[in-house]
């Protein structure tokens, strides 16, 4: 059971009294006392040091790329001086440490002040790194001002490092020594180095943005520029033709898709996306690469179709002509293109992430247009033994020469290279004699771009993931609730619906149905509220988890919810170390502050 929190005033007085008792310093600085107060709130143990460890800290960030060369030069200047320099990210993870004095190295290792360890106040209390990050100010934490006893031999000067234009926190530069001397000189040195790092980040950012701007301007000044968009994680640029043509929901949908494409450096070429207005945006993607890094992407945009009138929202599910729920333009286009190919008897290649409804779509097509035709489903053979694969290929050949057969070949992305080639050879041989219809189902980006198997189909359709089906989540959630609670007496609160719509749904419609089925089986009132939703609706990760991983994620989430987001107490309840807890939270996309 959680301890009741003290009133802010009394807990701050308690922190000051504890600080005076430990340090015997009557001139306590308010910044340090406030940090001790936070340390007490975090329930940090002053008698033991527990700095979580994170495997493989990110050294490919703009901060690391700018700071590490400066730190190397500084290390040469401080040779044999008992001073350590450190770079940390905004979460207090030590990215790099330089020290040439053997005695200081031993002392730092003793308290885990080394790369990979986390020195945020939440874990180790008042210290130079954590307090600078928490307060957003340069700080000097000397000796007894440290909250944890093991750190009280050290004198630390830390300065936050901010993004040069957005002024958001990127990390900190820290100087640590065990030599008592002029704190003013130590702080002046730390400020100077932090300023150099910020200047270098500005220069790198400027070079990347100049490169992106140059490519953007070239696209805009071409013979027939049309609408142009350029973006990376920091910058969005669009010309007047695009700004005038794409507004409102279309604007946000276009940026959402473009960012997702830009986050995958290998995605180039042309991609088409459906916009909420009913139009299609054809994006011709070109990467901007400078200085061995990806500076962003430039999109030449072609808009196809006309704006469609928007209808008032309805609580009833919107359905396509096949009876499938959903009114998202991207979804409706996928359904319409699939239907046209199916009716024409064209071999169809259906792509889409797991759980988006590819098999459901095929079944609906067969119900509507498959009268007199038999639907056969097969998947990759369970074994790669010659006898099994020969029989599998023989069965496919036999089925495709029957005119009344619709053969659905699922999980094509799981076929090995040799079997893919043999299947392609078989389909090429059957091209003139096959009278049956083939539908191949696979997941995108699972095979090489030069693969020819999918090109044997006359039509290729990509079924959109649930996160791109704008407005359909509410309709699907209500449909599944009626399916598993036929009485129809239940509904969702606005907050619960909003949370469902923000969830990334890495397993798509299948995952949403599983969640609603679980809710329907639980006894509850007529209204489903946020607190009724399972923990998986509260994470930001797009990673598809195994059954064991999902159970582990849910146990962590439930523990954090029960413990009011207290990481330390949740770790104790689960019987794992705080370092392990921290790693798993990062892996599963769990942010404690978002759970309250």
From TrEMBL:
In alphabetical order, the GO MF annotations are: ATP binding; sequence-specific DNA binding
Which GO BP terms, alphabetically?
regulation of DNA-templated transcription
Instruction: Give the top-rank taxon of the lineage listed in the UniProt record for this protein.
Output: Bacteria
Stretches assigned to the Sigma-54 factor interaction domain:
406-521
Against Pfam families, the record matches this protein to: AAA_lid_14 (PF25601), GAF (PF01590), HTH_8 (PF02954)
For this protein, the record's InterPro entries field holds: AAA_lid_NorR (IPR058031), GAF (IPR003018), GAF-like_dom_sf (IPR029016), Homeodomain-like_sf (IPR009057), HTH_Fis (IPR002197), P-loop_NTPase (IPR027417), Sigma_54_int (IPR002078)
What keywords appear on the UniProt entry? ATP-binding, DNA-binding, Nucleotide-binding, Transcription, Transcription regulation
Protein's name in the database: Transcriptional regulator
Species of the source = Streptomyces avermitilis (strain ATCC 31267 / DSM 46492 / JCM 5070 / NBRC 14893 / NCIMB 12804 / NRRL 8165 / MA-4680)
């Amino acid at each position: 059971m959680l301890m009741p929190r003290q009133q802010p005033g009394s807990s701050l007085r308690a922190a000051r009294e504890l600080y005076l008792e430990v340090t015997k310093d009557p001139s306590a600085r308010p910044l340090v006392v406030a940090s001790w107060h936070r340390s007490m709130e975090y329930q940090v143990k002053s008698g033991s040091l527990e700095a979580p460890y994170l495997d493989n800290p990110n050294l490919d960030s703009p901060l690391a790329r700018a700071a590490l060369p400066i730190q190397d030069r500084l290390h040469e200047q401080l040779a044999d001086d008992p001073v350590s320099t450190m770079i940390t990210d905004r979460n207090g993870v030590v990215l790099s440490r330089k020290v040439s004095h053997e005695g200081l190295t031993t002392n730092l290792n003793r308290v885990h002040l080394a790369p990979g360890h986390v020195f945020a106040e939440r874990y180790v209390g008042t210290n130079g790194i954590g307090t600078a990050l928490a307060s957003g100010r340069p700080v000097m934490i000397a000796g007894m001002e440290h909250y944890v006893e093991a750190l009280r031999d050290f004198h630390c000067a830390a300065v936050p490092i901010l993004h040069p234009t957005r002024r958001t926190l990127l990390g900190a530069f820290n100087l640590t020594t065990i030599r008592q001397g002029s704190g003013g000189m130590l702080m002046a040195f730390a400020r100077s180095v932090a300023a150099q790092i910020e200047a270098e980040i500005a220069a790198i950012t400027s070079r990347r943005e100049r490169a992106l701007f140059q490519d953007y301007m070239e696209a805009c000044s071409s013979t027939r520029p049309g609408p142009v968009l350029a973006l990376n994680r920091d910058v969005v640029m669009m010309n007047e033709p695009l700004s005038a043509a794409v507004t409102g929901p279309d604007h946000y949908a276009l940026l959402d898709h473009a960012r997702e494409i830009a986050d995958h450096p290998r995605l180039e070429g042309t991609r088409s996306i459906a916009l909420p207005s009913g139009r299609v945006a054809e994006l011709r993607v070109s990467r901007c690469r400078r200085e061995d890094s990806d500076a962003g992407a430039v999109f030449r945009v072609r808009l196809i179709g006309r704006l469609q009138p928007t209808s008032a929202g309805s609580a009833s599910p919107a359905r396509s002509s096949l009876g499938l729920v959903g009114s998202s333009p991207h979804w409706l286009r996928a359904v319409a293109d699939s239907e046209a190919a199916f009716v024409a008897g064209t071999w169809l290649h259906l792509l889409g992430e797991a759980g988006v409804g590819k098999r459901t779509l095929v079944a609906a097509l067969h119900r509507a247009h498959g009268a007199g035709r038999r639907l056969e489903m097969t998947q990759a053979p369970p074994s790669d033994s010659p006898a099994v694969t020969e029989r599998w290929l023989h069965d496919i050949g036999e089925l495709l020469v029957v005119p009344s057969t619709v053969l659905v070949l699922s999980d094509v992305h799981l076929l090995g290279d040799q079997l893919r080639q043999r299947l392609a050879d078989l389909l090429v041989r059957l091209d003139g004699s096959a009278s049956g219809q083939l539908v191949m189902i696979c997941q995108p980006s699972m095979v090489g771009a030069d693969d020819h198997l999918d090109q044997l189909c006359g039509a290729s359709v990509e079924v959109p993931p649930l996160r791109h089906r704008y407005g359909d989540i509410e309709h699907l959630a209500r449909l599944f609730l009626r399916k598993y609670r036929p009485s129809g007496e239940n509904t969702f609160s606005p907050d619960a619906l909003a949370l469902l719509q923000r969830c990334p749904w890495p397993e798509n419609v299948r995952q949403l149905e599983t969640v609603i089925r679980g809710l329907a089986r639980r006894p509850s009132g007529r209204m489903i509220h946020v607190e009724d939703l399972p923990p998986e609706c509260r994470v930001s990760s797009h990673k598809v988890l195994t059954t064991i991983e999902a159970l582990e994620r849910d146990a962590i989430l439930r523990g954090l919810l029960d413990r009011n987001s207290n990481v330390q107490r949740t770790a104790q309840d689960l019987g794992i170390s705080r370092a392990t807890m921290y790693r798993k939270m990062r892996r599963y996309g769990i942010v404690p502050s978002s759970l309250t």
